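This entry is passed on directly below:
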Amino acid sequence: MKKIVSYEHESVAKILYTVTEDVYNISEELIISSSRKRTTVDVRRAVAVIIKEQCPKTTGSQIGVLIGRKHPDVYVQLKNHTSLIDSDKSYSSIYYNIRVEFRKRLPLTFSLKDMFTKRNMLEKELSYVDSQIKTLQLNT
């Protein structure tokens, strides 16, 4: 069986690059660069996190190519996001601004796909809960 390759993460990255350019004047080239300026690092981290949120099956290596980093660095950035989002107002502001603007520009197909995926997951969970209820009812 042939493995299906999805390039959805590249489409998400392209939208994010336009958002970062418009909102923070940080281009794709600057994101991929070795710049260690605080704002650039925060924007780079936010881009990596949003790609992972939108495309959960995307690997660290795939995200790394999009942000100019190696996969261990990507995983460090994803981990750092968890602690910084609540403790660093500057970073959380950057992340939420990019995410909000990204969602505005997200094509309807992504949103519909997300909704169908979530619906399928919820239907599976509901089915499981229903089976557990029936089992409990039979035992009483």
Summary: Residues 1-6 have pLDDT under 50 and may be disordered. The longest helix spans residues 108-139. The two ends are 47 Å apart (CA to CA).
